[in-house]
Amino acid sequence: MVKEQALQLGADGHLVGVLARPSAPPRVAGDLATPAVLLLNAGVIHRVGPHRLHVILARRLAARGMTSLRLDLSGIGDSRPVPGALSFRESAVVDTRSAMDRLAADGERRFVLFGLCSGSDNALATAAVDERVVGLVLLDPPAYPTARSRARKLAARVRGLGTARAVLTWGGATLARRLRARVDAARGRAAGEDDAVTGGRGMPAIAEYRARLGALVERGVAILMVFSGALGERYNATNQLFELFPELRGRIEVAYFPGANHTFTERDAQAQLVETVCVWMERRR
């Protein structure tokens, strides 16, 4: 049985979250207890999560003896916006730390942050400044194309065309499109380089991202990165992360779901994701 409780958090109670706990008390407490999981908003989707992902995951974790909090950040869902000069990222970090403070009053000392897309960015930013974060589950975090990923994309496209004539026609059209793009870029009309690489999502420079991940793993933060099949050449193979960051092989765990879309809409994909996260969390005991 799962116990759920709505909470108001933050200094003035402007944040809202739903706490899910196992019905039986934990076997151990304090520093030896399994970390509590904070489920952060995916973009502006409220605490239910995309296609109820956060609800399903929270209840599954509780059924396996783990505590979680589905949090609405300021201005999302039932949480009130807070006037001020903080950026979205800065505000998200403050809110997440406030939620950890509230759970710490109940005895929770260690936390795993779960986030999809911008939620993963907020999780990374919080982990960088708060050592209570001992684990991260990052769904479609920052990802960057590599020479190998571009080659895989090209090979898959060629295989899909079938005939030599179709390949030549496609190749000619692709070359013409790229030439036009270069001309437009020279005239200042094309999208910026970052948009071309990331699809419009702001991401850190590769060197900055490498340093951030390196600092976290050196601190002992356990990291599970989960990639969907929606990222194109930015992620199209299980171990692509280590093509770019070979020094992180064996230090970060990766799961790749090539058949899943960005929000894990399909029930089978969502079920596999939830099971993957639960098994990974059980190893944090």
Automatic annotation (TrEMBL):
<dbReference type="InterPro" id="IPR029058">
    <property type="entry name" value="AB_hydrolase_fold"/>
</dbReference>
<dbReference type="GO" id="GO:0016787">
    <property type="term" value="F:hydrolase activity"/>
</dbReference>
<protein>
    <submittedName>
        <fullName>Hydrolase of the alpha/beta superfamily</fullName>
    </submittedName>
</protein>
<keyword id="KW-0378">Hydrolase</keyword>
